[in-house]
């Protein structure tokens, strides 16, 4: 944990291009919502994890030769099903460094990004995640709450 201290990021993030908001929680990485009790955090995260994995939010693709899938991790979650055998799966990953999640609600949250208690009181719910769960985490060394704006 010393090598990869916990990171703080907003539970709802603003997409830097579209301005739309999306949940930014992931069962594999998000461990707690700060500024609420552990019991409240666990209940809220369980609700959010169940919500983001509902079938109505899923896309299932029937692969054909030469298909390519591209998604924006800023607003999606993904996983691969092992349902492609006996076919081979080839995957290449590109990660954009420097894209820092933030939440914009009249800029209140960005102004409070280094004040977690004040941010939470203003409705800027902040989550904590542990990057050691994924050695190739996209935000190495980023420890700021809210993470600023583009």
Automatic annotation (TrEMBL):
Residues 2-95 form the TauD/TfdA-like domain. It is an enzyme of class 1 (oxidoreductase). SUPFAM superfamilies: Clavaminate synthase-like (SSF51197). Its EC number is 1.14.11.17. GO terms for molecular function: metal ion binding; taurine dioxygenase activity. It holds the Pfam family TauD. The keyword Oxidoreductase applies. InterPro entries: AtsK-like (IPR051323), TauD-like_sf (IPR042098), TauD/TfdA-like (IPR003819). GO terms for cellular component: cytoplasm. GO terms for biological process: sulfur compound metabolic process. Keywords: Dioxygenase, Iron, Metal-binding, Oxidoreductase. Gene3D superfamilies: Clavaminate synthase-like. Belongs to the TfdA dioxygenase family. This is Alpha-ketoglutarate-dependent taurine dioxygenase. The gene is tauD_2.
């Amino acid at each position: 944990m010393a090598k990869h201290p916990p990171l703080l990021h907003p539970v709802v993030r603003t997409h830097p291009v579209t301005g739309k908001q999306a949940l930014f929680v992931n069962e594999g990485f998000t461990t707690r919502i700060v500024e609420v009790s552990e019991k409240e955090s666990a209940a809220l995260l369980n609700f959010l994890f169940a919500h983001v994995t509902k079938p109505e939010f899923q896309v299932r693709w029937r692969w054909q030769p030469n298909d390519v899938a591209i998604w924006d991790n800023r607003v999606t979650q993904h996983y691969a099903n092992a349902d492609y055998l006996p076919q081979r799966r080839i995957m290449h990953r590109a990660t954009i460094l420097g894209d820092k999640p933030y939440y914009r609600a009249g800029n209140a949250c960005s102004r409070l990004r280094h004040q977690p208690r004040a941010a939470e009181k203003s409705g800027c719910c902040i989550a904590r995640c542990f990057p050691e769960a994924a050695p190739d985490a996209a935000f190495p060394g980023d420890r700021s709450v809210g993470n600023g704006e583009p």
